[in-house]
Amino acid sequence: MRKTVIILLIIGSFFVQSCNQNNTDLTRKEVIKILISSDKTNLNFTGLNLIGIDLSRLYLAGSNLDKTNLSQSNLAYTNLEDTYLQYANLKRANLEGANLNGADCTGADFTGAVLKGTKFKGAILKNTKGLSNKILLQFKAEETERMRNNDKVFY
Question: From CA 40, how far away is CA 62, in angstroms rounded?
């Protein structure tokens, strides 16, 4: 069965929906086509099943990935700055070198994820799962330093 990707313009942002009879994932090629055809901001992938997809080195800043299943996905060196990742499944995902600065990761599950060099500056990490104490302590130390400098702090 051929997969169809539907892009609907809703209140100034793109909503991406994967449709086929087998309910399979979007491919890297399809995501790149969506990025090329859009203004590259405000993409909405909410709730999609993207298990194992290769989104490495893509620019997804500002996108909505809330409740998206990204387990076992390759997000290495992907720009996810200011994205919405609330309750996203990132189990065993490769996030090496990814930029999650300013991302809202409330309730996201990072269990078993590769996080070497991942940037979390200004990210919201409330109720996350799978982040090591070392990462959380480093994050809190950075946030405390920003508080001293009168920057925004999110816990």
Answer: 9
